[in-house]
């Protein structure tokens, strides 16, 4: 997918000097994840809303 994402926000779990990701939303409702250091040149991982919820659920269940 090659979509325009807006309102990128940095993850609160990111390390500001090294490992940093951002999450944004497209006008079509998909969620994008990117590496902050590669803004504009790096890949964006695209999730549908259903995939995003499953991803977040899996992450939260592994934190226990």
UniProtKB/TrEMBL annotation:
InterPro entries: DUF397
Domain named DUF397: residues: 7-60
Cited Pfam families: DUF397
Superkingdom: Bacteria
Protein name: DUF397 domain-containing protein
Organism from which the protein derives: Actinomadura meridiana
